């Protein structure tokens, strides 16, 4: 028997998985989520439901046949061309053969008599589905002319699409006249005048268009229901002339409301009197004013055009856009031109939480010292290199030789300064960059000559590349016997860093931090690259810089290390940094000296802020009042932003974000247990790109998901996909703080399916994983029945009902259930952090000392809609 996945069915019928699941649920068929499989029967139910909704899909010949059948006495629910309520459907359902075609099945059915059942439930069901099944509704509309009015009472509602309502019900007088000529039937308002029409002989416009073949009195049921498109026209109000004929419900949700209702019943209303509530054609301006990017919806409103027209026009101009997507000013101008509309540019709106940037005259720029960050794999010698440089180039020049640690320092080389950020690692590229700060001009990549390119080396390269910062390679530990710089160069070339002596453009300098060799070469190269990069700034303006570090000092209050990047910071300047503000009370340089001013590329400790700013915050010298008021507004904005949900990309709301135009690139960090899986995943993921979104892999690597992966994901708004690997404890904490979506998979195609489903809005996650605790296996005992892992709960807890995964060196080696959880000899329900326990696993014996057991449970996720 064939099996079908829910998301496949959704794709086939051009709808969402949720709709498919809902339809099946109404037929007592259970499907948990988009990945659930269903059998042939379920497929038939879906086929049938959609066949009803998309009657137009039938070949022309069949349509004709259906049309002729419709004049007969027993029209089918199927051929009515629209969704029916399940209740009505069940009540009128006749057995059918599984292989039978939907329309044949429909024809086997008795006519639908139970309007009550239809009215009460069917309308609601349809309304719910109508939102998600625009296409089905459109098809149903198209199928209209083939389904005469006698067949079903729901035609008026279902086939009178809301979109047509203005034309039939609210049209301008001119349109109304047209309508009359078309169908030969009066407007609904006229229907209320028995003298003129006899009340029940007309259909509202949209129905008339379709039903004009039917004889008088044919609309005993369908045409008179004042629902959907007819509702507003009021013409079919049960209290009016139709009531005796239609068998309609006299009250309830289908009653026309408001102004029109009264109008409709007033005798003497006719088409010549415009309906005051009628939807006026929006004015079509010749000039519109725009201050910047604008959403398609706003633009359509300003231009007095339908959103759909605008989207179509954009398509012809080669831009695919959704209703809430922003188009830039240039595109808007071109688009408006297509409608002969002139765009007047308004000055861009000012953000009260932003400090206006000062544009520097190029002539005012002078060379400034370059700012350098050291990166590389663990133990390759970053700290040693920084220390060696500092000792040889700082202390030697300092009286007393004391260097204050302030997170950054300056060194001298050939009389020129170079600033080193004193945070070996990725700080400058990760948490700081995640806040939008770009402080580094050059990255020094340290690679141990005896170890070569390692995973963190690749990571560092990706960080620097993604920040578009030039890389200089320091091949360290050249004093080691196993040093092999050529091998390092070869490996780096494979990563896209081709050494200069091989014809590439990456400078590589052999050094030894221990023997302090090659250091001056390295510094010279830094100056060379800085010169090529034209690292410049204007010192004669208000200061602008970035917070490198900040802390609350007991004696001195908030202390922030600032790297001044533009202008000159002076004692007494009013400053703002993130949500903090104040006046510069004192400044201390990297040598521990008090200074009165700090020019571009000078790191200084600043005292005087009212609170501790965050690393990565921009510091600006501004007017005192502005500093205070902007900082206060930022605090308020931050609070409200914190209340809103994180806008970080996540598979769960990816589709929504794509629809809103918030995401055009889906950035992914891929981590896996082996290189082969990475390649397979990368290839498959990248090929998922579609018109709206492009998939790009910002980083990939073998091994556990670590904090640096999370910070890179945060900086590049990426989600992380782990294949057979898990985040370590630090990564998990960072992911929580940074709101990074980490997805772990053990089957590649599930990862691909999830991403694809999320991109197309078909992801319907029902459960989410909640980590309960982490347990370390300390001793393994063999017992006759199997093995028991003598373990210690490191954090959280483990319960006897927990699901568990065994992690060895960051790699998931097993996932499954517990067989028993014991303390001493007793079975227990739960063991908390800090306690020992004995764990045995179901169907798994290969547990080893040092393994980490992750206990988790699956929690039901509330459906958002
Ligand atoms: N022989 C030799 N050993 C070095 C050299 N540079 C660093 N080391 C040694 O390599 C080890 C790691 O050096 P670190 O400077 O701590 O390396 P790191 O990259 O800063 O390490 P993390 O901070 O842990 O990432 C230490 O034992 C150093 O003594 C070198 O040039 N030659």
Automatic annotation (TrEMBL):
InterPro entries attached to this UniProt entry: EF-G-like_DII, IF2_II, IF2_N, P-loop_NTPase, Small_GTP-bd, T_Tr_GTP-bd_dom, TF_IF2_bacterial-like, TIF_IF2
Skewed-composition ranges (Low complexity): 150-167
Nucleotide-binding keyword on record: yes
SUPFAM superfamilies: Initiation factor IF2/eIF5b, domain 3, P-loop containing nucleoside triphosphate hydrolases, Translation proteins
GO MF terms, alphabetically ordered: GTP binding; GTPase activity; translation initiation factor activity
Ranges for region Disordered: 54-289
Keyword line: Cytoplasm, GTP-binding, Initiation factor, Nucleotide-binding, Protein biosynthesis
Localization per Swiss-Prot or TrEMBL: Cytoplasm
Sites where the protein binds GTP: 376-383, 422-426, 476-479
Tr-type G domain boundaries: 367-536
PROSITE patterns in the cross-refs: G_TR_2, IF2
Superkingdom, natural source: Bacteria
GO CC annotation: cytosol
Compositionally biased region (Polar residues): 113-124, 190-206
Keyword set includes Nucleotide-binding: yes
Region G-domain: start-end pairs: 370-518
Pfam families to which the protein is assigned, alphabetical: EF-G_D2 (PF22042), GTP_EFTU (PF00009), IF-2 (PF11987), IF2_N (PF04760)
Record function comment: One of the essential components for the initiation of protein synthesis. Protects formylmethionyl-tRNA from spontaneous hydrolysis and promotes its binding to the 30S ribosomal subunits. Also involved in the hydrolysis of GTP during the formation of the 70S ribosomal complex.
Entry similarity comment: Belongs to the TRAFAC class translation factor GTPase superfamily. Classic translation factor GTPase family. IF-2 subfamily.
Protein name: Translation initiation factor IF-2
């Amino acid at each position: 028997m064939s099996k079908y996945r829910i998301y496949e069915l959704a794709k086939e019928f051009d709808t969402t998985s949720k709709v498919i699941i809902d339809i099946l649920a109404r037929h007592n068929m259970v499907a948990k989520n988009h990945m659930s499989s269903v059998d042939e029967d379920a497929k038939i139910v879906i086929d049938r439901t959609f066949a009803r909704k998309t009657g137009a899909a039938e070949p022309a010949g069949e349509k004709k046949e259906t049309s002729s059948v419709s004049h007969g006495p027993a029209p089918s629910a199927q051929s009515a061309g629209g969704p029916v309520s399940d209740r009505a459907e069940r009540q009128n359902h006749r057995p059918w053969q599984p292989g039978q075609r939907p329309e044949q099945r429909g024809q086997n059915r008795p006519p639908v008599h139970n309007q009550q059942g239809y009215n009460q439930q069917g309308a609601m069901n349809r309304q719910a589905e109508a939102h998600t099944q625009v296409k089905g509704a459109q098809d149903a509309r198209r199928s209209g002319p083939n389904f005469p009015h006698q067949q079903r009472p729901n035609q008026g509602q279902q086939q009178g699409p809301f979109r047509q309502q203005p034309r039939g019900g609210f049209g301008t007088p001119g349109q109304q006249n047209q309508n009359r000529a078309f169908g030969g039937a009066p407007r609904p308002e006229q229907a209320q005048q028995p003298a003129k029409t006899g009340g029940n002989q007309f259909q509202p416009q949209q129905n008339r268009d379709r039903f004009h073949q039917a004889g008088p009195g044919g609309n005993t049921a369908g045409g008179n229901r004042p629902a959907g498109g007819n509702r507003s026209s009021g013409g079919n109000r049960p209290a009016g002339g139709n009531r005796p004929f239609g068998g309609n419900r006299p009250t309830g949700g289908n009653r026309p409301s408001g102004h029109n209702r009264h109008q409709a019943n007033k005798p003497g209303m006719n088409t010549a009197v415009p309906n005051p509530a009628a939807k006026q054609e929006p004015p079509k301006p010749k000039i519109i004013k725009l201050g910047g990017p604008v959403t398609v919806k706003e633009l359509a409103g300003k231009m007095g055009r339908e959103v759909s027209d605008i989207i179509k026009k954009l398509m012809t101009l080669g831009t695919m856009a959704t209703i809430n997507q922003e188009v830039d000013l240039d595109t808007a101008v071109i688009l408006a031109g297509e409608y002969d509309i002139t765009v007047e540019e308004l000055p861009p709106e000012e953000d009260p939480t932003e400090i206006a940037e000062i544009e520097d005259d190029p002539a005012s720029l002078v060379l400034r010292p370059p700012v350098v960050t050291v990166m590389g794999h663990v133990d390759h010698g970053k700290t040693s290199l920084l220390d060696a440089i500092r000792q040889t180039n700082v202390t030697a020049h300092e009286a007393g030789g004391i260097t204050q640690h302030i997170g950054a320092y300056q060194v001298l080389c050939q009389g020129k300064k170079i600033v080193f950020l004193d945070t070996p690692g990725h700080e400058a590229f990760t948490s700081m960059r995640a806040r939008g700060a770009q402080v580094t001009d050059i990255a020094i990549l340290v690679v141990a000559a005896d170890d070569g390119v390692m995973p963190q080396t690749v990571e560092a390269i990706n960080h620097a590349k993604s920040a578009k910062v030039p890389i200089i390679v320091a091949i360290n530990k050249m004093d080691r016997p196993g040093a092999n710089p050529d091998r390092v160069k070869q490996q780096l070339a494979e990563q896209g860093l081709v050494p200069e002596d091989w014809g590439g453009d990456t400078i590589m300098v052999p050094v030894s931090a221990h023997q302090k060799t090659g250091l001056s070469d390295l510094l010279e190269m830094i100056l060379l690259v800085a010169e090529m990069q034209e690292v410049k700034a204007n010192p004669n303006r208000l200061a602008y810089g970035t917070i490198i570090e900040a802390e609350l000092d007991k004696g001195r209050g908030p202390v922030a290390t600032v790297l001044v990047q533009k202008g000159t910071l002076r004692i007494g300047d009013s400053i703002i940094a993130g949500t903090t503000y104040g006046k510069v009370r004192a400044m201390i340089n990297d040598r521990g000296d008090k200074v009165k001013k700090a020019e571009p590329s000078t790191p200084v400790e600043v005292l005087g802020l009212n609170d501790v700013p965050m690393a990565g915050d921009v510091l600006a010298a501004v007017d005192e009042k502005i500093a205070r008021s902007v900082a206060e507004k930022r605090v308020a904005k931050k609070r409200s932003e914190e209340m809103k949900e994180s806008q970080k990309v996540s598979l769960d709301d990816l589709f929504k974000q794509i629809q809103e135009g918030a995401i055009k690139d889906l950035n992914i960090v891929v981590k896996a247990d082996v290189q082969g899986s990475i390649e397979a995943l990368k290839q498959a993921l990248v090929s998922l790109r579609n018109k709206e979104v492009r998939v790009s892999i910002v980083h990939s690597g073998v091994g556990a998901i670590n904090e640096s992966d999370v910070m890179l994901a945060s900086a590049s708004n990426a989600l992380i996909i782990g294949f057979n690997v898990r985040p370590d404890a630090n990564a998990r904490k960072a992911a929580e703080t940074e709101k990074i979506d980490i997805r772990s998979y053990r089957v590649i195609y599930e990862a691909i399916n999830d991403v694809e489903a999320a991109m197309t809005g078909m992801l319907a996650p029902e459960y989410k994983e909640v980590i309960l605790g982490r347990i370390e296996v300390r001793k393994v005992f063999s017992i006759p029945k199997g093995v028991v892992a003598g373990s210690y709960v490191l954090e959280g807890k483990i319960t006897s009902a927990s699901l568990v995964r065994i992690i060895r060196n960051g790699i998931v080696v097993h996932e499954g259930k517990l067989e028993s959880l014991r303390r001493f000899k007793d079975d227990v329900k739960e063991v908390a952090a800090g306690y020992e326990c004995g764990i045995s696993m179901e169907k798994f014996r290969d547990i080893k000392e040092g393994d980490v057991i992750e206990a988790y449970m699956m929690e039901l996720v509330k459906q958002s809609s």
